[in-house]
Amino acid sequence: MNDILTQNIVLVLNRNWQAINVITPAEAFCQMSTDVATALDVHGPDSMWPVKWQDWLALDIRKHDCVVGTVRGEIRVPTVLVLARFAKVPLKRPRFSLRNIWARDQGRCQYTGAELGPGEGNIDHVLPRARGGRTTWTNCVLSAAKVNTRKGCRTPSEAGLKLRKQPEAPRAVPVTALLKNPHRIEDWKPFLFSDS
Fold first, then answer.
1. Separation CA 132–CA 123 (nearest Å)
2. Angle at CA of residue 51, ends 48 and 56, nearest 5°
3. In contact, 116 and 144? CB cutoff 8 Å
4. Global pTM?
5. Mean pLDDT of 168-173
6. pLDDT tens digits for 48-73?
7. Domain boundaries, the chain
8. Per CATH, is 98-151 categorized as 3.10.20.90?
9. Is beta strand 48-51 parallel, antiparallel or unpaired with respect to 37-42?
10. Can you tell me the distance from the alpha carbon of 97 to that of 140, in angstroms, rounded to the nearest whole number?
11. Closest CA to 46 of 186, 180, 182
12. Is the model's pLDDT at 45 over the cut of 90?
């Protein structure tokens, strides 16, 4: 099934074997065929070795392998790729979302300090959108739903509220910490902090 070529199911490691990206098999094959990367032939967490493109084409297909059909026959889809020259671990800021606002504000209303349970909090715009406030890390905080409703289209001072601390964007973290394994690919586990 060749729609597998467009799914993000190949973990990319830098040359120090640190996870830095997830790509499609089509991109992986291009990088392998131009010697930008080698694929790992994984036989367990303690048994893996890099394989160059020409040797990869000759590998046997195992029962659990994903494969793509070509005019030359079936080719195993790699699960992990190692870049030949790139050594850095890029930094990335977590994307803006309620979940990440919740994490930044540690699940506490930024006006009352109350610990919030599921469904009790939402995003409040410190300077309301109706008054030109933008949806950014520095203008949004976690707020108890009741407090946010009471505040309405007013600023905190107009509503008689005080922020516990000024909101700021979270620091950028190594992309390795943000990579997830939504397809639960077993070969990725030795390289990721989280299995989800």
1. 16
2. 120
3. yes
4. 0.69
5. 91
6. 999 999 999 999 998 888 999 888 88
7. 2-91+174-191, 98-151
8. no
9. antiparallel
10. 10
11. 186
12. no
